[in-house]
Design goal:
Blueprint lengths: L1 H21 L4 H7 L1 E3 L1 H9 L4 E5 L3 H4 L10 E2 L2 H7 L10 E5 L4 H12 L3 E5 L2 H7 L3
Parallel strand pairs: 1-5, 2-3, 2-4, 4-5
Length: about 140
């Protein structure tokens, strides 16, 4: 009976270690690697003429729609990002600020870019937040 208990304990520990490493290890380190930036900070970078890339991950209809887009942004919808990631290769050494309507799709896109070795940052609140800057 004692041997069975030890076997169960060892299997549970092994399963825990497997799940921990399969999910990328330290969750706190993953959070630290994922960065957010506010619309105010993005505006300051643009005004300071910092060498950044703006990536809009909405649909073309949204890009040209009522919320508008940030000048000089590249449009690659999030659902196409995986198959079009090579288009961003020239910007691999630059900070890529990713945005969408509200900050949800851009969070997904930022994670895709980070997994592919890009220096990507998610703009919180998206175009909704950006447009509030001028109010």
């Amino acid at each position: 009976m004692k041997n069975i208990i030890w076997l169960v304990v060892v299997l549970l520990v092994a399963a825990g270690v497997y799940l921990f490493t399969a999910n990328g290890g330290d969750a706190q380190a993953q959070t630290a690697a994922f960065r957010n930036i506010s619309p105010q900070e993005v505006k300051a970078k643009i005004e300071n003429k910092e060498d950044i890339v703006l990536l809009d991950v909405r649909t073309p209809g949204e890009f040209n729609g009522p919320l508008g887009h940030i000048d000089n942004a590249i449009l690659i919808p999030v659902q196409e990002l995986g198959s079009r990631i090579d288009e961003l290769a020239p910007y691999k050494d630059k900070e890529i600020i990713v945005y969408c309507r509200s900050g949800n799709r851009s969070r997904v896109a930022t994670k895709i870019l980070l997994k592919n070795g890009f220096n990507a940052v998610n703009m919180t609140r998206g175009m909704q937040g950006w447009n509030q800057l001028s109010k």
